[in-house]
Specification:
- It is a single chain.
- With about 280 residues, the protein is α/β, with parallel strands linked by helices.
- It has a seven-stranded mixed β-sheet, with helices on both faces.
- Helix 8 links the parallel strand 4 and strand 5.
- The longest helix is centred in the N-terminal third of the chain and has 40 residues.
- It binds S-adenosylmethionine.
């Protein structure tokens, strides 16, 4: 009888500590999510009241089977490459900020023209393109020089048999133009041709000089209410110097202070989507 009692007590303790861990994890994750969503509110003020849309948008990307299968295939075969996070990791912790800024944000603001610098595997291109696909509008231009170890602070080269953006599924490619080359050469003529853009995402060379050059080159072409997003803002003070100089609202996610966004002040448009409010303007 004693033996049974101690087996049962052991099993109960084990179950109880697992449950406790699960509950804590859940609380921490939902705290992280609400912190991050709160931080987005600074650049998308009308996020309030979009709780159901936010939940739906986050669910649709996490359950995107075609993207998941492609990611899992490449993680299995090329897991030694940088940025080879598992599907789960891409939606938790630090990586969650990419989903929020590059998927959720783009679903909410429904941009027309988006430019990204730095592609590599194309995870962030995939997030952006899936948002445009679900929005049924918009185009992404990505400029990338295939990664080479030792160049632009990359510590790995893109394997010869792969092309930049290998993670991007075929169904998302019609809304995508991938430009192979240096952003110094290709960004100015692209901006000139597009005349204005809604979202810019920097993830190429993270030196102060280059980051500042990209931000200042893009800014005049970013429409009022447009958003500049940047990775690696902790690499130097370029993002901070630029944001302070522009005096615009800034968002830095709590779980990943290496990621940031600035919204160009003025009218913030949130266009009518399935559950969105009509075009609304917000004074800065
Ligand atoms: C950090 S990786 C991009 C990762 C990608 N955004 C993601 O998270 O899925 C940086 C990429 O930018 C490229 N790159 C760096 N400096 C560049 C430049 N001046 N012009 C074009 N591409 C550049 C690198 O070769 C590399 O492919």
């Amino acid at each position: 009888m004693k033996v049974w009692r101690s087996i049962l007590a052991g099993a109960f303790n084990c179950w109880f500590s697992r449950m406790k861990e699960k509950i804590w994890k859940g609380i921490r994750q939902s705290e992280a999510i609400s912190d991050e969503i709160d931080c987005l509110r600074r650049i998308v003020p009308l996020l309030s009241g979009q709780k159901e849309a936010v939940r739906q948008y986050l669910e649709e990307i996490e359950t995107a089977q075609e993207i998941r299968e492609r990611v899992e295939y490449y993680v299995e075969h090329y897991g030694y490459l940088p940025f080879s996070w598992s599907w789960h990791q891409r939606f938790h912790g630090k990586q969650f900020s990419r989903v929020l800024f590059l998927y959720l944000l783009l679903r909410l603001i429904r941009p027309e023209n988006v430019i990204e610098t730095g592609c590599f595997s194309g995870w962030t291109s995939t997030l952006i393109l899936y948002a445009l696909h679900r929005n049924e509008k918009g185009h992404l231009w990505t400029i990338d020089l295939p990664a080479q170890a030792g160049r632009f602070s990359m510590d790995a080269s893109l394997p010869q048999e792969l092309t930049p953006g290998f993670l991007v599924p075929d169904m998302l490619r019609p809304r995508w133009t991938l430009i192979i080359g240096d952003t110094r050469e290709h960004l100015p003529p692209l901006l000139h041709r597009l005349e204005n853009i809604d979202v810019f995402y920097h993830d190429s060379d993270h030196t102060y000089e280059h980051m500042m050059w990209e931000y200042t080159t893009v800014w005049p072409y970013l429409r009022q209410g447009g958003i500049l997003i940047s990775d690696d803002i902790g690499a130097n003070t370029a993002f901070w110097d630029f944001a302070v100089a522009m005096g615009c609202p800034m968002a830095i996610p709590a779980v990943n202070p290496n990621f940031g966004a600035i919204s160009k002040m003025g009218e913030m448009y949130i266009q009518k989507g399935p559950e969105m409010s009509n075009i609304v303007s917000v004074s800065p």
